[in-house]
Specification:
This protein is α+β, with helices and mostly antiparallel strands. It contains twelve helices and seven strands. The chain folds into two domains: about 170 residues, no CATH class; about 140 residues, no CATH class. Helix 1 packs antiparallel against helix 2. The N terminus is likely disordered.
Length: about 325
């Protein structure tokens, strides 16, 4: 049997992570995403790797540079804690005679996917960050005195600089997730498992595949015991904004049938309105209630398998 990402043991999986991380270090950002996909495809020859989507508009804290752009620290939090020794007064005194700048990392996340089987959960998701370090703010001001190290590191209200680049953009491997393994772990929430199961039970499963239309937004957190866990939420892959179906826009009868089928056409697969209703507040839950009421009456505009899913939701509603 070929060793794909869905059946690798832990040692080979770790080796794959290292290979993808090395690819991220070697590929030039300026060459675009195609060489990145091509290089990852080479280490997963039994699968078809493709770009699902890119999410941008986020940033994280960066480091510290001086007036000439020389590096003072890569991590502003660690640097501030070390320099202050826990005393914000001491830190501000040290900075009174220097002109340093805090930076931030402007980011994009590229989501690559590869389907490994027929079920919604049967795919791998590779997340790669594209980072650009830019100037964020002066690190101190005579009229500003932070209350704590946390306030110093990430002030809520502080004048920002023009985001002038500090160094070249780079790619950073974030994670490779075998979604089927995630669903079998303790991190898989019951609602997410139900979401994927309903995809398999519905007419949406007749489309090109779940990972053609959705990725998982994965976050890490620590519980009270300090153990690391993941949370995951489905995020739709859409090229253009989909229709808004708020409470006031929910029709009935043939008008409602046209609404949901029109939504499905825009999304590119059947029963799309239902899955977007579960994840997007712009698609009202009253939509499902109205469809259910129609189908319990004189109308018949959903396949039987979709009606079964809808009935289950009506009896036990949920959302993500």
């Amino acid at each position: 049997m070929a060793k794909t990402a869905s059946n690798l043991d832990s040692g080979l999986a770790a080796e794959l992570d290292l290979k993808v991380a090395e690819i991220c270090r070697s590929v030039e950002v300026t060459d675009g995403i195609a060489p990145l996909i091509e290089a990852i495809q080479a280490v997963l020859p039994d699968l078809s790797v493709r770009h699902a989507m890119t999410r941008s508009g986020w940033h994280r804290l960066g480091g510290v540079v001086d007036l000439d752009g020389n590096r003072i620290a890569h991590n502003i939090t660690e640097w501030a804690e070390a320099e202050s020794e826990g005393d914000i007064d001491e830190l501000m005194f040290k900075l009174s005679d220097v002109q340093y700048f805090a930076t931030r990392l402007n980011g994009q996340t590229h989501y690559l996917v590869a389907q490994t089987g027929p079920r919604a959960r049967d795919y791998i998701q590779i997340e790669i960050e594209q980072l650009q370090e830019v100037l964020d703010r002066c690190i101190s001001d005579p009229d500003w005195f932070p209350d704590s190290i946390a306030d110093f590191v990430d002030p809520v209200d502080f004048p920002r600089l023009e985001p002038e680049p500090v160094g070249s953009p780079r790619l950073l491997f974030r994670r490779l997730v075998r979604v089927s393994d995630l669903m079998d772990s303790q991190d898989a929430g019951s609602h997410l498992m139900r979401f994927l199961d309903e995809w398999d039970r519905s007419s949406a499963a007749e489309s090109e595949g779940f990972c053609r239309h959705w990725v998982l937004s994965i976050r890490e957190y620590q519980d009270r015991d300090g153990d690391g866990h993941l949370t995951a939420k489905p995020v739709p892959v859409v090229a253009n904004p989909l229709p808004v179906l708020s409470d006031s826009q929910v029709a009935r009868g043939s008008g409602l049938a046209n609404q949901i089928h029109g939504f499905d056409r825009e999304a590119g697969y059947p029963f799309a309105w239902y899955f977007h209703m579960l994840t997007n507040r712009k698609v009202s839950h009253k939509l499902a209630e109205a469809v259910h009421a129609d189908l319990m009456g004189a109308y018949d505009y959903l396949p039987a398998r979709d009606l079964k899913v809808l009935r289950d939701w009506y009896q036990d509603p949920y959302g993500l």
